[in-house]
Structure formats: C-alpha cells, structure tokens
Write a structure and sequence with these properties.
This protein has 837 residues and is α/β, with parallel strands linked by helices. The protein is built from 26 helices and 24 strands. Strand 22, helix 24 and strand 23 form a beta-alpha-beta unit. The N terminus is likely disordered. The chain binds adenosine-5'-diphosphate (ADP). The site of adenosine-5'-diphosphate has 20 residues, from helix 13 and helix 15.
Length: 837
C-alpha cells in the first residue's frame, strides 16, 4: 500500500510545524528573539558611541568611524545580508553625524580626505558578510532540524508498524511462525506454542521442519482418532518443501504436526517466502491452522449418520423381535385360556392358572425389556389420540384388581374438573399407571390402593393431569425413595428375591412422563405406605358426536380369518365358533381374495374379515387393499397385531381397515368390537355412508359411555345444576325431570332413548320410590333406576330395592361412583347382550 505522504502527520516543515503545531511556544520564542535583538542593538550602538567618542578624544579621529562595525555587525547578524549592507551604508551618515556632534571640522576633513570611502565600503562588506554568514548558518540549522525531525518521525512510524505486526502475530488465534533463510525459527506466537506443546526456548532457533511428523508408526491424534503414518507422507513433505523456492508459496497444505507428547495434530499450512529487493530471499512466513475441531465436527456428523442408521436397524430389529416373542406368548396364553374353559380337576386347573399367570408376567417382562431398548434407541415417540381419562383409569383398576391380595381394596377417584375428552397417548399413560398400580398391588398386603386423577394446571387448550397412586403397603425407606427411579434399582436385594421384578419399571415410567412434559416421583417412608405421583400434559379435545348402536346377533355370521401363526389362528377360530359364528381360516394372505370372490359369487358373502397385519408374503395391509379394490368396499375388516408401533392405526385406516385390536385378543373386547363393526355396517346400509374413524378398543368403550343418556330426577335447582355440570363434564348427556311425576312422563314418552334413571328419593308430587313403583308397574322392567339420597340411613337401601330400584348411591353424587354404576348397569350389560344374543 502506498502511503500518502502529504497526509503523514509530522512530515510538515519543522517551522510550519512549530507555528501550526504549537503556536504559543513559537510566539514566545519570537518575542524572546526580538527582545535579545533589541538588547544587542542598543548595546552595540552604545559601544559604538562610547568608543567613537573616546577615540576622538584620544586623537584617533580618522579611525574612530571603524567602531561602527559593532552595530553594523549586530544588524547583519540579526537581520541578514541586505540589512547588513544597508547598515554599512547607513554607518556613513551616522559617523558624519557623530563627527558633526563632536567637532564640525573633523567631518569636513573626513569627507575631504576621502577616508570615508574605504571605511564605508569596509563596513558595508562587514555588515553584508556577517548577514550572509548568519543567514547561511540559520538555513543550515533549519535544514538540520528538519532532517532530524523527519528521522524521528520515520523511526516512530517504523516502531509503530513493528508493534502492530508484533501484536498481529501475538494475538492471532492461528499459529504464526517466521523463519530466516535457513528455515530456522526467528519468531512465533503463543498459538504455535499451544499447538505443539513446546516451550519458547525449545522452539526459538529450531528448524521449522522439525515439527512435521517425524517417523512412521501409529499415533494418537488430538481428535481422538488413531492414525498410521506411512512413508508416503514423508514423500509428500519433501516434495512440497522442495518446490517452495521455485513456487515461493505453499497454499492450504493438509498435513500433521507432531506435538511434544508425540500426539499428532491435523493442520492446514500456508507458507510464503519473504524477499527484499536488495537482499533477495530473507526467510519465510508460515501460518498454520489447527484442524482438530473441524475434524471433530466432521467425525461427530459421521457418527450421527452411522448411529442413525444403526438406530434404524435397531428399531427394525425391535419391531421384529416384539412380533416374534409376543406371537408364541399369545399362543401360550390363548391356549391356556381355552384349557381353563374345559373340564379340569382342581389340580389341573391350578396348573393351568399358574401357566397363565407365568405367561402373563413373562409377557410383561418382555414388554418392559423391549420398551427399555426402545428408550435406549431414542424411539419413544408419542401417538396422539382422543380418549377418556376416566375410562382409562377404571380400565387400569380392572386390570390390577385380579392381582390384589386378599383383603386389599382398590379405589378409583376422578376429580370433577377432569374433562371427558382429552388428546394424548393413551397407551403410554396406561402403561405408566399399570406399572405404578402394579407396584402398589405387589407391595401392599392389607388396606387399600387408590388411584386418583385430577387436573393440576390448565393452560390454553391443554391441561396437566396429576395421577396419584396411594397404597398402604410396605413403604420405602426415605433415603431410597429417589434411587428406585434409576435403572435396575430396587430397595434392596431381598426385594428381588421376595417380589421379583427387574427394577426397570419406574425408570421407564419416569422417562415416558418426561417425554410428556411431566414427571414421576414418590413420597414414602418405611412401613407407612407410599404415594406415587405422575404428571403429564394432555391436550383438550373436541366433544365427540356419538351415534347409538343397536346390537346385532353374532350367531351364523360368516367370518374370514387369516393369521400366519397356526396356534393364534386356532385360538381365534375357537372363540368365534363359541359364539356360533361360521369361520373360514387361512394361514396366509394367499387365497383370501379368491375365497371372498367365491363367497360373494355364491350369494353367501362374508360378514366380516379379521386379518393379522404381520403375515409373511402378502401382509394385512396389502391384502386389505386388494379386498377393497377387487371385492368389497363395505365388508367390515378388523386388523389384529401383536406389535403396536407408532402410526399403526393410521396405516390401518389408510389400508382400508375399519377397526384395530392388539393381541393377545381378549374375548369380551373382541366380541364387543365385532358387535360394533356389524352394527355400524347395518346402520350404514340403513342411513348411508359417512366418514368413519378407525374403531379401537378404547373408542368402543368411549362411544358406549358417551352414548349414555341419563334421565335425572331431582327437584332441587342447586343440586340439578351441580349434577348436570358434573355429568356433562364427564361426557354424558342428561335430561332433567324436576319431580317423580315428570320423570315417569318423560321416560314413558321415550323409553328407548334413556339408558338409565338417576332418581332422587325425596321429591314433591311423586317421591322417587313411588315413581319407581309406577314405572315398574307400567312394565318398564329393564331400565336401571339408581336411587340418589342424602339419607344414608340404615334400611334405605333395602327400601329402594324393594320398590324396584336397581342400585343406590349416596348424595352428593361422585363422578367415579356414577361411572361405576353406569359401567355395571348399562355398558357391561350391553356387552353381555352382544355376546349372548
Ligand atoms: P420392579 O418392580 O420391576 O423391580 P420398579 O422400577 O417398578 O421395578 O420398582 C423398583 C423398586 O421400587 C421395587 O423393586 C421396589 O423395591 C420399590 N417400589 C416400587 N413401588 C413401590 C411401592 N408401591 N411400595 C414399596 N416399594 C416400591
């Protein structure tokens, strides 16, 4: 870069600089100079006058004018050449004036004798000479001053550039080295020392080439890798360095430096030869970049790619394993169920029950292990489905009930604020609850276990549910309460011996809860029972529109079933035949389409198809697709599968299935599902097509619940309001009758509409008891009438039952009690009708 000299500070003429740079000191100097000039002028003039006078008096009159040399010399000295000459000329007049003052005759003789001419000439010469000498010396001094100033500025400039360069080298994050012509290091920065791990004295004056990897072998690299250095790398180094003098630079050279601790650093090297016009080559400038972090990032990326691939392989393996392991287990459990249904003596029955229990616990163990592997593989992915938390909680209690010890009660309590419709992953929530309730039942030998579900927090369109699982069991020592959430941790080894278990459950529960934005924790102390807490965020879902279905008899219905597992096929066939259905079974997808075509050609089409999804060859999805395109769009199709993966339900719906059930198949769930499928098809034929969602085991129960229409007979407006709010929040539909008489009228007008009557006992006009009697007299024998009374007096129950009431609940009514009543008297009744009709 060219410097604009005009703009370089400090390159002004020194005089200008004095004047412009520091005007005050310049003015002071000037005035001092003027004062001293005047002083010398006066002194010299005084000397002249005194000497002139003395010399005249002493008689040296003709040479007296010579003393004018003093003022003339001073003027020449101070004012330069011209004023000096003028002063010499002027001295003639002054001398004449002096003669004139002292003695008139002398000046005449001075003139007349002609002595004035050489004298004046001499004085002019002296004044001019002194003036000239003086101005020459001033010029020389000025010149010297300005030269000195320039040198000073140049030196400062150089120093500044040197410091800047030094700073640049020292502060550079990239290592920098400067070498002389012999490649000996003359300068380097801290980054270089940090890179190679040597001290300053160990580097200075050493050959720069020393820091390239020195010999063949296997080395650790700063990236964490290990590399083998072969001879080829030395060839590369010598070729590159050999070409340097000719090419004058090496750009972006990837190689290794060797650190003091012998590890290698991957580096990018740039070298430029330094040269000067007169001296030629003067050395080299080397900038190095440490590639460790770049390489690490590359490695991490590669690792991610590889682990993603291996995760995919792992999850494919898991899906496969889960199918492979569950399939024979389903066979074991299914056949044991069938065995239990046959005539067995008590010993055989006991063995069979033990096989079933062991099978079930093995299945749950396998599920835990598979789940754990899934968490490990980062595969915990949540589904989102609408579901009813209340049903789910009761379902969990039903599952746990058979595991309870004698004398242990199970209680389910649902908070009034809990909405009926929420959206989240019901399988995962159930898994956590079953696990916690399972533990509670395992460690409680007397007293009770309670599951309660409340709303902890509400934010727009989502709520945090808080489930508490309380037991009166053996408790956990306070110092172990947190550690049991770690993998494989149990309170102590004797727990394993006595109660079994893997120590995986709570850790899985906590991870699931955390994926749902919540947590699992416990409060407990030894011997004082425990409370386990489980929180999770769920979304608020839209209210469901539910149609009421009418059961269809199953007997003589024609079903096609396909499953590659012969044992499962047999279990299923057996179940269906027990309901007198006509079953055709296939152990693969092949031949199914053909059989269906034949059946519809012969005017005896299948009423239902049940297909296993994971069949080799033609799987359930492909088969359904073919059936839908080639045979029938409307035949109800049920998918069954032993592996539940995320997106299964969506895939089923897309393939054309109407419903999905997981294996092992539960008899009552299966019949309920078939009933729903057949009645829906019948309704469709009657009312026309409409977009339907895939039916699942949950949606069947939920639909049943929401389809319930309650007639509430209650006279007190406050109680009416409370009950309606509670029941509608829970998902039911309610109509109100304000007294017994009205209730009888409303029910008699539409007896098929109402599923249940909740009847207050004390009402004006017609009491609950009388209204019930009247209804029964009118012939409405089957409708469940549940009494609600505040008088929980002894004998009330009997009175109600005598009057023809079905059951009895105490006021204020509780949500879970209503649910239990409806389940017992409405929903389960419907199921039984479906199976037995
Ligand atoms: P597992 O029950 O399969 O061993 P968990 O992770 O579910 O594994 O439980 C870990 C341990 O925590 C149990 O072995 C038991 O010692 C303790 N524990 C869990 N729940 C309870 C409970 N309700 N009461 C007493 N101890 C419990």
């Amino acid at each position: 870069m060219e410097l604009d000299k005009n703009n370089v500070p400090g390159t002004e003429h020194p005089k200008d600089m004095n004047a412009a740079g520091n005007p005050d000191s310049a003015a002071a100097l000037k005035s001092e100079f003027i004062v001293s000039r005047r002083k010398w002028m006066l002194i010299s003039f005084a000397v002249y006058v005194v000497l002139f006078t003395v010399m005249c008096k002493l008689g040296f009159r003709t040479v007296a004018p010579i003393v004018a040399i003093f003022p003339v010399g001073v003027i020449g000295w101070f004012y330069g050449l011209k004023p000096g000459i003028w002063a010499g000329l002027g001295s003639l007049l002054v001398n004449i004036m002096m003669f004139f003052i002292l003695d008139l005759e002398i000046w005449e003789s001075f003139i007349l004798h002609g002595a004035w001419l050489p004298g004046t000439f001499g004085l002019v010469a002296v004044g001019g000479m002194i003036g000239w000498l003086r101005s020459m010396s001033v010029q020389l001094r000025d010149h010297r001053d300005s030269l000195e100033e320039i040198v000073k500025l140049r030196t400062a400039d150089l120093l500044k550039s040197k410091i800047e360069l030094e700073n640049l080298i020292n502060t550079s994050l990239d290592p920098i080295i400067v070498c002389n012509t012999g490649a000996f290091i003359t300068r380097f920065n801290k980054a270089f020392l940090d890179l190679i791990g040597y001290s300053e004295t160990e580097v200075l004056g050493k050959k720069f080439y020393n820091y390239f990897v020195g010999s063949q072998g296997t080395y650790e690299v700063t990236t964490g890798e290990t590399v083998t250095i072969e001879e080829s790398i030395f060839n590369d180094i010598s070729i590159k360095l050999g070409q340097l003098p000719e090419q004058e630079k090496i750009s972006n050279w990837k190689t290794y430096f060797q650190r003091k601790d012998q590890t290698l650093v991957p580096v990018l090297v740039n070298i430029v030869l330094l040269s000067e016009e007169q001296e030629g080559k003067t050395g080299s400038f080397v900038i190095v970049r440490d590639l460790t972090e770049f390489r690490k990032a590359d490695l991490a990326m590669m690792f991610r790619e590889v682990s993603e691939k291996s995760n995919q392989a792992k999850s494919a393996f898991l899906a496969n394993m889960s199918h492979e392991i569950r399939t024979p287990m389903n066979g074991v459990i299914g056949f044991t169920d069938m065995l239990i249904d046959t005539e067995l003596n008590s010993e055989q029955s006991d063995y069979a029950q033990t096989i079933k229990r062991s099978g079930e616990s093995l299945l749950s163990l396998i599920n835990d292990i598979l789940d754990y592997s899934k968490i490990e593989a980062g595969k915990i992915v949540l589904e989102e489905t609408d579901f009813d938390m209340e049903i789910l909680a009761f379902d969990v209690c039903e599952l746990i009930r058979p595991r309870l010890g004698k004398g242990v009660e199970i209680i389910c309590r649902i908070g009034d604020e809990l909405p009926a419709h929420v959206a989240a992953d019901p399988h995962r929530i159930k898994q956590v609850l079953v696990n916690l309730m399972g533990n509670a039942s395992k460690f409680t030998h007397s007293g009770e276990i309670e599951l309660s579900v409340d709303v902890e927090e509400e934010q727009d369109r989502k709520i945090m549910i808080h489930a508490q699982i309380r037991d009166t069991g053996i408790g956990i020592p306070a110092d172990r309460v947190e550690s049991i959430f770690s993998l494989f941790e149990q309170v102590d080894d004797s727990t394993t011996r006595r109660y079994g278990g893997t120590g995986l459950g709570l850790s899985i529960c906590r991870q699931i809860a955390q994926v749902m934005g919540g947590n699992v924790w416990a409060e407990s102390s030894e011997g004082a029972g425990s409370i386990f807490h489980f929180t999770a965020w769920v979304k608020l879902a839209e209210k469901k529109q539910v149609r009421r279905f009418h059961s269809v008899p199953l007997s003589a219905k024609k079903v096609l079933i396909a499953d590659d597992n012969k044992r499962n096929l047999k279990v299923l066939k057996n179940m269906l035949e027990s309901a007198e259905m006509r079953v055709e079974d296939f152990s693969s997808g092949e031949g199914v389409v053909e059989a269906m075509r034949k059946a519809s050609d012969s005017q005896d089409p299948f009423d239902l198809c049940i297909l296993d999804i994971m069949m080799p060859g033609l799987n359930g999805y492909e088969l359904t697709d073919r059936i839908r395109t080639q045979i029938s769009k409307s035949v109800p199709m049920l998918a069954v599968s032993s592996s539940i993966e995320k997106g299964d339900t969506k895939k089923c719906q897309k393939a054309g299935f109407n419903a999905f059930l997981p294996k092992p198949l539960n008899r009552s769930k299966l019949f309920k599902m078939i009933d729903r499928l057949l009645s829906e098809t019948a309704d469709k034929e009657q009312f026309g097509e409409e977009e339907t969602k895939l039916i699942t085991q949950y949606s069947v129960v939920e639909d049943d619940k929401y389809a319930v229409l309650i007639l509430l007979a209650e006279d007190n407006p406050v109680n009416q309001k409370l009950a309606v709010s509670l029941l509608t929040k829970a998902g039911y539909s309610v109509e109100i009758a304000e007294n017994g008489k009205k209730a009888v009228e409303m029910y008699s007008a539409k007896p098929h509409m109402f599923d249940v009557i909740l009847m207050d006992i004390q009402m004006p006009e017609l009491s609950g008891i009388d209204a019930t009697k009247l209804l029964r007299e009118k012939g409405f024998m089957h409708v469940p009438i549940i009494a609600m009374t505040a008088n929980a007096m002894k004998g009330d129950r009997e009175k109600c039952l005598e009057a023809g009431m079905t059951d009895y609940i105490a006021k204020p009514i509780k949500r879970e009690v209503v649910f239990e009543m409806l389940k017992k008297w409405v929903i389960d009744k419907r199921d039984q009708q479906a199976i037995t009709s």
